[in-house]
Amino acid sequence: MARIALDAMGGDFAPRAAVAGAVQALAELEPTHTIQLVGQPDVIERELAVLLDGELAALAHVRPRLDVVEAPDVVEMSDKPSAVLRTKPNSSMMVGLRLQPEGRSDGFVSAGSTGAQMVGSVMILKLHDGLKRPAIPTVFPTARHAVVVLDSGANVDCSPEELVQFARLGAVYAEDVLGRPNPAVGLLNIGEEPEKGNAVVKETYQLLQHAGVNFRGNVEGRDILRGRNDHGDIDVTVCDGFTGNVLLKFYEAVAPFMVGLLRSAGVSAEQLERALEPLDYSTHGGAPLLGVRGVSIICHGKSSPRAIKNALRMAVQAVESKMNDHIGRRLSASAEDAA
Amino acid sequence: MARIALDAMGGDFAPRAAVAGAVQALAELEPTHTIQLVGQPDVIERELAVLLDGELAALAHVRPRLDVVEAPDVVEMSDKPSAVLRTKPNSSMMVGLRLQPEGRSDGFVSAGSTGAQMVGSVMILKLHDGLKRPAIPTVFPTARHAVVVLDSGANVDCSPEELVQFARLGAVYAEDVLGRPNPAVGLLNIGEEPEKGNAVVKETYQLLQHAGVNFRGNVEGRDILRGRNDHGDIDVTVCDGFTGNVLLKFYEAVAPFMVGLLRSAGVSAEQLERALEPLDYSTHGGAPLLGVRGVSIICHGKSSPRAIKNALRMAVQAVESKMNDHIGRRLSASAEDAA
Question: In chain A, what residues touch B261 (CB-CB under 8 Å)?
């Protein structure tokens, strides 16, 4: 049983995409799960009425599992993320996050400002011991199985110790949310050999050998889409947020670029759509902010109802697998080992 | 008129691919250009005889423009790059490079060990003033026009000053070899705004505004394949060799990955081959090692005759455009500005 709060006002297509995604998620989830729509009640109620009387009328039976939680303020993309908590303490973002420490909710999902969600999550949920910053994992669809790449943008200058923490965070995420037992962890690098790489990465390689993770050595750029390096399958790839963010945005641009090339060569739109479906980001919906004491799922601003639905399912999975507890235990175990 | 030395013994498919590429290049190039095949004369002569009596018989008229230069030693991939110059001073790599300071050649092309070629080029050709290390540019095929990304692997830890030098090197390369007048230079970063990025990149942004290059601000991962950022077209994108190498290897893996997805969806092999032809690395053949006082073109170990041919054409273009002089002048002009 999980109670997931959803920022009904966040994202380019809010509140429509958020409310529709919530209804669709409840229709798929076990009936014990509930969703709290956080935002301006009149706006949310109007949207719910339109959807449940209209295109989602067949799902109207989920209505009793939807609550509305009032949050009068709305965070705009132009608001400075670091100031939002102070200037708009009653935004849907902050009210939604506060439900967790208040014991009223188990997880939070938003397609609003990523920066504001990071700041709010750290301030309201707090970080696990031993962390200076949270990390954002991205799931890269590959030929074999998806690979988690982290950090993908929350941390631009990283120490070896921080990269090791990312490995632990990513391993718990891969196990709890993606269902990979004893996930194999690789270090993004420019060669296979331990002595390759820049100064930070070389030191990280040494630390990862005794970090309590299933470390499988270096992963090169070409290995990511293979889902493996020469030592076997890889579930998690660790890198600093600068490299991770460049790679992620590059990858997002690959599919449209390829579609252009292929369309010019006469490949049909239908074939392409079917072929590239595995690359659709909305399959994964969102990324949990790892390291905070709670569940905070970050969605793309352009999230469709399907993406929101899948992000809500991810939140439920994170809650049910007790990912948050596992992260806390994993980090404190390594702190004890080090002591 | 350019005299290009070619390492006939380097590369996975040597000497066949090298010799065939040389013959094909001469058939396409103006008749004033000549090629020196560097390596073991008996091996080279035998290969030439086989090709010119056989599949390349129609091109036998280029034979007088081919010289053979003796080099008894052969560099193996297992040789330590930093030691090759000492342990194998008469390898095809080192003999071929020495022809330039001896005034007997204008450029050098090799598909042998990249590490040995870097070390040899720096030791034998020497670096231009003001440089600590050379840089390797990679040409990324994109939707509009190819974008030069550098450094793509020669330098893993880079200072802001080094990134600025890459911008100057890349600009001369784009102008002289790719024919882009006043090339637009971007800085690879994780956002558009000047204040984005890690510490090195933030400082580089400031320096690039007064570096004598046509600086167009930050380039995000998604901009590379568009060939532009929001300020217009981009010809050159600057990054450290760690990020550049990860991105390059990732990109090389994209086409095979996409082909797999598309074949599973029933797209025909012929359509794919035609569609993805622009991504074929052999179109560009090789990358010049930028910063050394001469022309040293690095080719992929798996170079086909076509790739070797195109690398030789690139060498001719670098010689004829006087890229080397332009780099020297560009770097000393900026040193004077700074003084």
Answer: 143, 275-276, 278-279
Question: Quick one: which of B118, B115, B108, B105 has its CA closest to B7?
Answer: B108
B chain contacts of residue A253, beta-carbon cutoff 8 Å: 221-226
For chain B, the average pLDDT equals 90
B192 Cα distance to chain centroid: 29
pLDDT digits (tens, 9 = 90+) for A69-125: 999 998 877 888 888 888 899 999 999 999 999 999 999 999 998 889 999 999 999
Q: At B53, list the tokens.
A: 């009596």
ipTM for the complex shown: 0.85
pTM reported for the whole predicted model: 0.88
Q: E strands within B77-202?
A: 107-110, 138-140, 147-150, 184-188
What chain B holds in terms of domains, given with CATH numbers, is 3-130+291-321 (3.40.718.10), 138-261 (3.40.718.10)
Helix (H) or strand (E) holding B250: helix B241-264
What per-residue confidence (pLDDT) applies to A19?
A: 96
Pairing of strands A147-150, A138-140: antiparallel
Picking from A226, A272, A276, the nearest residue to B253 by CB comes out as A226
The DSSP secondary structure of B293-312, one letter per residue, reads SS-EEEE-TT--HHHHHHHH
Best of B156, B195, B200 to substitute, by most chain A Cβ atoms within 10 angstroms, is B156
The alpha-carbon gap from A254 to the nearest alpha carbon of chain B, in Å, equals 7
Rounded Cα distance, A86 and B43, in Å? 76
Reference A216, options A239, A183, A257, A190; nearest CA is: A183
